[in-house]
Amino acid sequence: MSTIRENLESIKLNIKASANNVNRSCEEITLLAVTKTVDTDKILESIEYGVTDIGENKPQELARKYDIIGDKVRWHLIGTLQTNKVKYIIDKVHMIHSLDRESLCEEIQKRAEKIDKIIDCLVQVNISKEDTKHGLYVEEVIDFIQNVSKKYANIRVKGLMTMAPFSKDEDEVRLVFKSLKNLSLDIQKLNISNVSMEYLSMGMSNDYKIAIEEGSNIVRVGTSIYGKRNYNN
């Protein structure tokens, strides 16, 4: 049996078990296969074994792989998005997970208007306030989202995204995910126009089981599907 197939089966069992722990249905959780540095043949193999959503960190890589694979899957841009790279993915992407500043909103709006497309986005939140992570601080998020709602008609905020610290302390990780969930509930109560808190994108290979227990419905898993990769390429 293919290693990728075995890995996917194992992850799906873990997703189901974690969902069961908190009386959730595994059907409501999307497994987003993160394909940074992964060749298209391996991506196609994972699609064959049931992957429906692909996450790429770099816009040009997403565009290159899209040209080969096309719309067999939904493409998500999950890495930091520079304004000058929006043009590469605007007509290809299902969702952008890293909306975090006004200049990016302006560029997405401009490009989306040109092709008459509404772009679904998640606002990236830096819960742990780590210098190495991008995203808005919790206290900035509501004002930012209200501003997006007022000014950018072609951007639809569909939820939030965060990354937990890479820590062996499960309580520390859990607290980050819990905080994002609580923030999403606060935003939901405000009933902001053109904004929903449908998605919480949180949890990666090392912590997706905890994330699911804390309310995640998009887990971004790469290493556990495709194996360890060389990120120096």
From TrEMBL:
<comment type="similarity">
    <text>Belongs to the pyridoxal phosphate-binding protein YggS/PROSC family.</text>
</comment>
<comment type="function">
    <text>Pyridoxal 5'-phosphate (PLP)-binding protein, which is involved in PLP homeostasis.</text>
</comment>
<dbReference type="GO" id="GO:0030170">
    <property type="term" value="F:pyridoxal phosphate binding"/>
</dbReference>
<feature type="domain" description="Alanine racemase N-terminal">
    <location>
        <begin position="9"/>
        <end position="228"/>
    </location>
</feature>
<dbReference type="InterPro" id="IPR001608">
    <property type="entry name" value="Ala_racemase_N"/>
</dbReference>
<dbReference type="InterPro" id="IPR011078">
    <property type="entry name" value="PyrdxlP_homeostasis"/>
</dbReference>
<dbReference type="Pfam" id="PF01168">
    <property type="entry name" value="Ala_racemase_N"/>
</dbReference>
<protein>
    <recommendedName>
        <fullName>Pyridoxal phosphate homeostasis protein</fullName>
    </recommendedName>
</protein>
<keyword id="KW-0663">Pyridoxal phosphate</keyword>
<dbReference type="InterPro" id="IPR029066">
    <property type="entry name" value="PLP-binding_barrel"/>
</dbReference>
<feature type="modified residue" description="N6-(pyridoxal phosphate)lysine">
    <location>
        <position position="36"/>
    </location>
</feature>
